[in-house]
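[DERIVE STRUCTURE TOKENS]
===
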Amino acid sequence: MDPLPEAMANAAATGAERVELYTEPYARAFGTADEAAVIARYAAAARSAQSVGLGVNAGHDLNRDNLPQFLAAVADVAEVSIGHALIADALDLGLNATVAAYLQAIGAQR
């Protein structure tokens, strides 16, 4: 889902248990002057989802660089979809080192 706080009640009304916030806009804004405003929308959407009983997942274009900041700003993300970035990193670093690096990135914010 796009990070629209007002849409979360509608998602809950469908019977969904979780939403996945589509994070490509965050990834594009990462490291730019727009980053703070964009991440604030994700934080607000997550709070809105959680307030109506939804769990929050996130995914698309998250990677070792932008994941720690995302998790620091967006509370209680249950799951992140990082498969593409993880495999791309594993081609350079090896799978064991890549998994360790992602665990470190996630652990740095938990």
